[in-house]
Write a structure and sequence with these properties.
about 240 residues, alpha+beta, eight-stranded antiparallel sheet, 3 helices, about 45% strand, elongated
Length: about 240
């Protein structure tokens, strides 16, 4: 009887041992599998990682042509005058625009800051790189932020001299020969601004805005009638 009971206990102990052993092996295998999967995931992330760049996420979805005639009212030589001109730019994703801007002030502009004793006329022509960023262009009313980096030419002449020229293209002569004055002042400027845009129809908008022209360089010329300064060529524009 004792032998039978001992034999039964041995069988039970063996069964419990086997069950415990199998359970431990199962847990061990699961832990190893999780560890290997974690290593594979880490290697996968490491292997697929790439260097981040500024334009990595820039995708051109739409490309358009942006033409914008402009009339401005701005400061020159301590007084306000009208400007006419415009921009021609490429438009990317209805947000970023890059192109050229050109303008010139109206003729017969005689600011007193040039010479208080004599009436002198001032004419400027400029051409620059225009950059513009637009916020929420799909909305009826939105904002855009233009920036122009430009070069220009400013001619100063007497009223009699400019009246003697035969057209606007020859403005700046100080004689009756109708030749452009080669001694005019060259200048360069930066002009940031802000526009309030209103969508008139799908492919056209109307905008009003303001900016400030910071003149950063003027050439000195001893032969020029007046050497203009950075302050005289800087000012507000609307």
């Amino acid at each position: 009887m004792v032998t039978v009971i001992s034999f039964i206990k041995k069988i039970n102990n063996n069964l419990m041992f086997r069950r415990n052993f199998i359970a431990l092996c199962t847990v061990f295998l699961l832990l190893i599998n999780d560890h290997l999967n974690a290593q594979d995931s880490t290697n996968l992330v490491t292997n697929t990682d790439s260097t981040k760049t500024l334009f990595a996420n820039l995708k051109i979805n739409t490309l358009g042509l942006y033409l914008a005639p402009e009339i401005q009212y701005g400061q020159l030589a301590g007084a306000f005058t009208g400007f006419r001109g415009g921009s021609a730019m490429l438009l990317l994703n209805n947000k970023f625009a890059i192109g050229l801007n050109a303008n010139s002030n109206f003729r017969n502009f005689t600011p007193t800051d040039l010479n208080s004793a004599q009436a002198l006329r001032l004419q400027t022509h400029s051409l620059g790189l225009r950059l513009e960023y637009t916020l929420a262009s799909h909305k009826l009313v939105h904002l855009s932020f233009p920036m122009t980096l430009g070069l220009g030419n400013a001619s100063v002449d007497s009223v009699a001299g400019t009246n003697a020229t035969w057209d606007d293209h020859h403005f700046g002569s100080n004689s009756n020969r109708g030749l452009r004055n080669p001694n005019s002042t060259r200048f360069s400027y930066i002009q940031p601004g802000i526009h309030l845009d209103i969508n008139v129809f799908k492919y056209g908008k109307f905008f009003v805005g303001a900016g400030y022209r910071f003149n950063i360089y003027t050439s000195e010329n001893t032969a020029a009638l007046v050497n203009l300064t950075n302050a005289q060529l800087s000012g507000l524009t609307f």
